[in-house]
Amino acid sequence: MINKSNRGFTLFVSMVVMGVLLLIATGIVNLSVKQSLISNSGRESQLAFYAADTGMECALFWDVKNPSAEQSAFATTTTSVINCNKDAFNTGNEWTVGGASVSVLPVITFLPEPYCAKVTVTKNANGTTLVESLGYNTCDSSSGRRVERAVRATY
User: Fold this and answer.
1) Residue 60's domain spans which residues?
2) Lower CB density within 10 Å: C or N end of the chain?
3) How many structural domains comprise the chain?
């Protein structure tokens, strides 16, 4: 004969075990989602850094293309037309620079990718040059996931 006080004990134990398993599964899923977001954020940060580095390399190339400081594309006395990442599909990356102590390349787009950079070249009176490049993982300034990374060189 079954003891009336033990009825439902198996159901209770199975419910407790299922609850514990559900909590463990929820914790693992939550951890996986957070790790995925962190990984994606790191990837976007890396892309923004690469855009900044590419903008910096473009400015350095045009600045040191000619050995004479006054023949540099960013010379304070003359102007030059430069381009970065310009090809048949991306014709907009062209600027007139130089003729002043500060030259700005407002947006260098890296089509077909959505990345871009803004570069500022400052020629100081003491002969030093400061190049600052801000890279973005997307050129859409209203994006909630936009990441900015910067690179600076002085020489």
Assistant:
1) 4-154
2) N
3) 1
